[in-house]
Amino acid sequence: MNRLLLLFWASTFMLIACQRPTQHFDLLIQDAQIIDGTGSEAYLGSVGINADTIAWIGTGSQNFTADQIIDASGYTLSPGFIDPHTHTLRDLQSDSRNSNENYLLQGVTTVVNGNDGGGSYEVKRLLTALDSQGIGTNAALFVGHRPIRRAILGMQQRAPDSSELAQMQSLVRKGMEEGALGFSSGLFYSPASFSKTAEVIELARIAGEYGGLYDVHIRDESSYNIGLLAAIKETIDISRAAQLPANISHIKALGVDVWGQSQAVIDLVNQARTEGLLITADQYP
Question: Structure pTM?
Answer without folding.
Answer: 0.85
